[in-house]
Amino acid sequence: MEIDPFIFRLSIFILSIFIGYYVVWSVTPSLHTPLMSVTNAISSVIIVGAIIAGLAGNSDSVFTISNILGFIAISLAAVNIFGGFLVTQRMLQMYKKKKKDK
Amino acid sequence: MSANLSAIFYLISGVLFILALRGLSSPETSRQGNFFGILGMTIAITVTFLSVGSFSSGLIYVLIFLLIGGLIGAFIAYKIPMTAMPELVAGFHSLVGLSAVFVAISAFLNPEAFNLGLPGSIKLASLVEMSIGAAVGAITFSGSIIAFLKLQGIMSGSPITFRGQHLLNALLLISIIVLTYLLCSTQSSNFFWILLAVSFLIGFLLIIPIGGADMPVVISMLNSYSGWAAAGIGFTLENSALIITGALVGSSGAILSYIMCKGMNRSFFNVILGGFGATEQSASLGDKEYRPVKSGNAEDAAFLMKNASSVIIVPGYGMAVAQAQHALREMVDTLKKNDIKVTYAIHPVAGRMPGHMNVLLAEANVPYDEVFELEEINNDFANADVAFVIGANDVTNPAAKSDPQSPIYGMPVLDVEKCKSVLFVKRSLSSGYAGIDNDLFYKENTLMLFADAKKMTEDITKNL
Question: H helices of B187-316, where?
């Protein structure tokens, strides 16, 4: 009997939860705020769904409700992607070690 | 691009996201980690465009909307002050939630584009996954909006409770399951819309009873939800990048919530059920007697610190409110010039989100190797001369160790009282969010400095 592809996706999901568990425990507490902003940015990979929704349909009907929702979702996710990664970058730039010549 | 090839690329971007989180294990590797994250996102977006292949004229709109969103995001990222980080993160969570909802609706209305079947006869598994993604997304959205309003001060930070609240929430949660079942068995879009409406309502009801100081838990929890929403949509779209990311973000938020709850010695359910701080203060308020406190001015504080050989600084939310981090850093610089050893002690729940204080200190150019977590530094208080508590209160309250009657009993606290002398910068004698008096105020070796945190630190610097 063939295995349903769903089972494979479920396996990826469960294993990723475990990876996430161990990886996040190793994050140093002082970087918890950047952790939140970066997880925010990467969870906006949901934009791939929004792009598919936005590009769906034929040339005659670009503005079906389904497309328009896709467009809005693209914007929302893009705010998050750019905002999330850039603000993380900005925060991480500030974490500096003590200068030795002091 | 073939489906198999794009699946491999999605897997690669999933792995890059794992590396992005891994990089955060130390500040040195963190910037590289962020780069991996950006790379992973670029790959995922590019592959999506290539795999759709035949571009309809919708392409130009997709690019325009992408650009608009990107510009807004970049603008916010450059303009936002570091003290507003909790609001920003809450706001961003709401966007993830809302886009998950929109993608789910779009997939429901036009399932062919996503290979999910025809409208009215969508595959059963996809419907379930779609419902979960949409429901969690909607809860994330409305919950984050409330969290944002509370953090921004537009909405009062005090808990809003009413009778039958928990019963109502429980009923609504059950109704989500029932609605999902009805949706699957009838394929009727009406149930889908009701499901969404109920989910929005739950998010709203879930967050209003939670008080301002419990925000670290709420933000982490919503972080987790936004991940589960993404994972739900990932299953619908059969996209491994989304599934991996969703799982990572989901467990990350869950761990942060756990750490925050532990920092307050409260169970997760206790926080979620809410109302903390609104409970009646029976005994302690009734026999509140007048107790003398020693209060001083900037000169006294400067004198004490000048004669110390080691100082530990304990920042709290009050420092963020007063934007005192730069003034604090200047004070510390002056102290260091006098060969006084200065370190910072950070309680896990100081501030309004995990790591809030660390970011503010980093912004003020405080080297991160001078900043310590509770377990690392708690033994040092006994050997330090002065503890400088700026804008913190409950996290220093010795009642958490000594008084089993206290609502915060059992919460890990910084052993500030073991210092030779304690300086407390505070606006007034009012109690912290837990609504309890802090015995530390009345101790023999405590000097209260009643002033705005920023002004007081500046004055002390002048007197050093």
Answer: 189-207, 215-237, 240-263, 268-273, 283-286, 298-306
Is pLDDT of B437 > 70? yes
Look at residue A101 and give its three-state secondary structure.
Answer: coil
Query: What confidence category does residue B283 fall into, taking pLDDT thresholds of 50, 70 and 90?
Result: very low
Does A24 lie at the interface with B, CB-CB under 8 angstroms?
A: yes
pTM over the 0.80 mark = yes
- The C-alpha atoms of residue B47 and residue B457 are separated, in whole angstroms, by 53
Residue A99 has pLDDT above 80, yes or no: no
- Looking at residue B34, its pLDDT comes to 94
Q: Which residues face B373 on adjacent strands?
A: B346
Q: Give the amino acid at B339.
A: D
User: Is A57 within 8 Å of B237 when comparing Cβ atoms?
Assistant: no
Q: Which two tokens stand for residue A37?
A: 């902003």
Q: Is B394 a catalytic residue?
A: yes
Per-residue confidence (pLDDT) for residue A41, from 0 to 100:
94
Assess whether pLDDT exceeds 90 at residue B157: no
| CA–CA gap between residue B150 and residue B144 (Å, rounded) | 10
Cα separations (Å) of B306 from B310, B332, B341, B418? 10, 11, 11, 19
Q: Which of B214, B385, B394, B415 is catalytic?
A: B394
In SS3 terms, B147-212 reads as: HHHHHHCCCCCCCCCCCCHHHHHHHHHHHHHHHHHHHHHHCCHHHHHHHHHHHHHHHHHHHCCCCH
CB contact under 8 A, A50 and B358: no
How far is CA B328 from each of CA B35, B162, B355, B423, rounded to the nearest angstrom?
32, 42, 18, 14
Is any Cβ of chain B less than 8 angstroms from the Cβ of A65?
yes
Q: Is the pLDDT of residue B32 over 50?
A: yes
pLDDT band, very low/low/confident/very high, at A16 (cuts 50, 70, 90): very high
Distance CA(B161)–CA(B463), nearest Å, equals 48
Nearest in space to B252 (alpha carbons), one of B276, B280, B230: B230
Please give the structure tokens belonging to residue B228: 């589960």
- Chain B residues in contact with A66 by the CB 8 A cut-off are 105-106, 109-110, 113
